[in-house]
Amino acid sequence: MDKENSGQVTKRTTRASASSTPSKNTLSNQEEFEDMDKENSPQVTKRTTRASASTTPSKNTLPNQEEFEDMDKENSPQVKKRTTRASASTTPSKNTTDYRPPSLLDNLVFREQQSIISQDELFSTFPGRKCQILELLRLFGPINSSLLPIFLYGGPSSGKTSIVLHIFKHLKRPFIYASCRTCHNPRLLFESVLNQLLLHRKDSSNAYSSAKRCDKPSDFVNMLRESLMEVINSLRVNSKKSGLKESGEQGIGGMVYIIFDNMELVRDWDKDSVIISMLFKLYDILKMPEVGLIFISNNSPDTYHLNTGSVEPIPIHFPEYTEDDLYQIFLRNQRDPKLYSSFLDVVLKDSCKITRCIDELSTYFRLLFEKYCEPLSGIGRVPNQDMKSKLYMHLKPHVTPSLNEVFRVPSCLALELKENKEKVGKKRNMRRLGDGVVPDDIDFHMSVSAKYLLISTFLASRNPATLDAALFDSAGGGDNTNRKRRRK
Amino acid sequence: MTPSATPDSPPPSSPTANNENAESNLQPFFVLHKPIHKNSSRKSTQSAKTRRKIDLSTETPKSNKSKGAEQVEQIVDDHHYQQLRVEAFDIIWSKIEITIKEVLRGINRNVFNEIHQWVRESFAAIRSTAGTLNSAEFTCPYPLSIDIDYKKIFTGLVFTKNVEFVDDLLTFNDLRLHLKSQGCHVVNLSSHDFSAKSGIGGCIRSLLRQFVMVDPDVADITILASWYNEPENFDIPLVVIIDDMERCNGSVLSEFILMLSEWVIKLPVILVMGVATTIDAPRILLPAKALNYLEPCKFALGSPAERLDAVVEAVILGTNFGFDIGHKVTVFLRNYFLRQDGTVISFIKAVKIACAKHFVTEPLSFLCSGLLHEDCHGFLLQKCALLPESMREYAFSLPSCEGLDKTTPLSAESLASGISEIMKLKKNWSSIFMCLYEAAKFQKKQLVDILCEALDPDAYRTRSSLQRRVGEVLAKSPSVDHYSATKGSLILQVIRKVRDLPMKQLCQLLQIWGKHSEEIAAELHEKVKELQSLLKSEEENNGGQADVEGLSKMLATRRYMNIQRDKGKVFDKAVLLLESMIRDYLKPIECAPFHEIICFKNVDILQSALVGDPRRMIQVDLLKSHKFLLCSCCTKGGTVLLPSMHDTSIMYTLAQEHGDLINLHDWFKNFKSTIVPPCTSAKGKMRSPSSKKRKHSNEPEDLPDALVQARFCRAVIELQITGLLKMPNKRRPDYVQRVAFGL
């Protein structure tokens, strides 16, 4: 509430200043106007330089004003948006849930103030992905520049989705996200995209139904075009309004981006080829330069048999992390980086040979790190060289077994460690016995006849297939004890 | 497959009695396959072997019934007493049922509380991660980008320890109610929701149906998200219980987990999965990428054997319900549990059947309800006095009364006191049994096993004679182990092992004995008390020994030896006490007169009721359908086929005349000639009630061919559905194959 109020107040002042006293901070204002012109025109200028130019000169001269302005830049577009939405969103029924009024910005752009992140932050959050981020930023280009379809691919947990989402956080542009995992059939995918575009929310007031029913790809294209038009128009109106008053810099631009995540799953659907080709051709079909399409997949684009004749998406590969990258990744957000780095020195090299998937490694490391820290409980937390080797000796026996575990069920190891230690030993031993030996005391109850049935099935499975008819057919074959049980 | 193969290798047509018995133990598993040939006629008449005819005339050997049996039947059929018995059954069974439910709930209570605690903790953990999020982020369609360590789905693996899942359905239902009462959103998903056929949509749909109470046309998890963000639903854990994880389709389940992982934090779903076998099960079922998202925790339900023990303890040993099961029935039930089924539910069902059968077959069983009365003897007296002479006679002619003094008057008085005597006996028996069982507990023996032996009247007799002998020998040379000969007897094993118990456990044991013996006899209680005080002094001596450690070594050793000897004495006394208790009081109920009135002993009835033998019943019913339909048109027909009979019944009766294969054409012709009377003049008389259409037509003789064919086809299909026929195959398009022969 406070923020809104202040935003409004400041807006009024800036408006006043913009109209009546343009001389106050001429330099920056002029700069901004210039900028806006440039941005409206298809020509593109470097934004970064301009931003620095606009902030630096006024800083020393007018600190007070500067503060106001800064707040302005951050707040006013939002306030603006909200008001325009209120006026523009004549579409009924949406405002019924009053605890969360929908608005374009709310839904399509990361909203919170603190979530605006700088480029440097982006790089530091994703170590080892600098070139991909730069490439993406280059492709996205400055505001209102059109985007050819992009195709991101790489192994699981290589940061594809996170990076894209963070870039949108950084750029503050409207986007729509649809994961083919959550939307597990075409209809859900289509409706999810449309719902987001139309700012529709499923709730009890509309019986949890979608805004529009959309089953067929052709319907989807038509509806998508319609709703995109609407959105883009409102964005244009928006940016015009805000752009005239403020700098275009903080605006969200006129582009709408659609992200399709987990594209590889589409291939398991019915009529997958139709949908895949439709999605990849969407850019050509829609012929709307204001729409940017981003596809994210585990597989390389070669696996999709893309039809030629349409604009092929620009592939961006997310390769496996290198060992150094992994080191960086695991080191960030650690409470005790020194200790952890000494831990990583020990384990990372070996485990890298087996997997570089962050998810797997992190589960594995979490267990091992606990072990690693065990002898440290009494002593101070900073290990010296001597201590390190000691810790290593302690850890060594656990490395290989845990590695073995991590690929089967890391979860159960964790559980057993936590739950009942004395039983673990027993269990382990039982497993060690090998698969052939069934321990005498199985943990679960099984009736005698079920056991016989299992044995007979096993025996039957060892028989050659040619004997099946003779042994198990209801009418044929020899007199076998199995016959009674196994006859149909 | 060839018809000639069958006569060449006839199944063992005349199984020995022993064989038959062994087979009948396994019956539910091949009920559908192998008929037991009661008459050897098939073997002898080679020509008739293809004619698989069922002869129902041998079914009811009513003619050779004794007069006494007839009398009993008369009593059984008496309407008034029938009513009384049904009432008694209702009263007694409802009490037993309530007790069982209470016991089962009690077993699970601890685990349920544990699970609830864990759900709370997990939810708190999720919430603490979600602390920084605002409401917009809770509904955003994109996944939250957070560390994998916080992205876990908390998963409780509940080990049911039973490959049969029937019991677990009930358990998980109870768990749902429990968690719901503690204020969680809970759903139960079964393995059917995770089938490959319905895919991921199936389980999401089921989830939505139970959580949101809507049935959307597309199964969309975002519905759940927006439902959860409604203020009245928010901030409550969502618990999803999956009954039997191992029966689920692995790929669907993993897809479900991966989808949930996209909504992690936003939807605080906590999974509870039932695992029947071992901890390896999730590892086997799920791919690593799904396992990565699980943060498991282990819970264990009581094993079926434990549950069974608890139920048995409550029902047979606990409070007196006025219904008891005999030794043979107990053994049968135990074997049924161990060998065939292994679920407590079916055990309870079997007990219920036993109870119902008891009240149906035992004429005097209505007296049982009197045992629940405050003034049991008075009530019984009153009831017995009202009994007609025939019934009283019947009571005194029960096999258990043979040993009774012939001079005993056949009065209501003696009958009533006899029954009250049984109750007293039973009470003592259960107290002593509990003493014995407490001792057996230290040796990890199963209650049911000991129970079977304790109920056995034969074992009782041999035991008492043996003990007398042993007692004599013991007087001569106390150092010999006399029980080595009795290896098979569990009870004697238990008695012997008492000697090897540690001091502390013996102390506990005596305490429990003290409690139980209080109810039986003063002198017994006195003995236990005496032993306890002796033990106490021993212990004090022991404690003293620690103090005198400073004394010279020799002295200490001597003292120690003394103590050892004394200790041996105490243990000997304990053993002797237990022996005497068992000898005097552990008298099975089947040794008492009139026990038939409250004790169910008929294993055969129970067995046949449990086995069910559905196909046999279908065949019999088909052959005499008029007995069930009770229509006026067919009753007088006897075995002759009438057109008014039900089509399927006609068809099946006709099929009896054929061999393994039935020529469709012949069959159809037979059928047609049966339902369309050859004599056209007999008009309205032969109308079939099964075809209403025909009633409106004036002339039954022009029953259209199409209609006959349609009826024929329907009957064939019905026979196929009941599993008596196989449809024609390509090789023999004009023949159907009979599947089941004989009864």
Automatic annotation (TrEMBL), chain A:
Residues 15-24, 50-59 have a biased composition (Low complexity). Residues 446-487 form the Origin recognition complex subunit 5 C-terminal domain. InterPro entries: AAA_16 (IPR041664), ORC5 (IPR020796), ORC5_C (IPR047088), P-loop_NTPase (IPR027417). One of its GO terms (biological process) is DNA replication initiation. Keywords: ATP-binding, Nucleotide-binding. Residues 1-102 are annotated as: Disordered. GO terms for cellular component: nuclear origin of replication recognition complex. One of its GO terms (molecular function) is DNA replication origin binding. Residues 125-268 form the Orc1-like AAA ATPase domain. PANTHER family: ORIGIN RECOGNITION COMPLEX SUBUNIT 5 (PTHR12705:SF0). Belongs to the ORC5 family. This is Origin of replication complex subunit. It comes from Thalictrum thalictroides (Rue-anemone).
TrEMBL record, chain B:
The keyword DNA-binding applies. Residues 47-367 form the Origin recognition complex subunit 3 N-terminal domain. Its main location: nucleus. Residues 615-741 form the Origin recognition complex subunit 3 winged helix C-terminal domain. CDD domains: Orc3. Residues 1-71, 679-702 are annotated as: Disordered. It is found in: Nucleus. One of its GO terms (biological process) is DNA replication initiation. InterPro entries: ORC3, ORC3_N, ORC_WH_C. GO terms for molecular function: DNA replication origin binding. One of its GO terms (cellular component) is nuclear pre-replicative complex. Keywords: DNA replication, DNA-binding, Nucleus. Belongs to the ORC3 family. This is Origin recognition complex subunit.
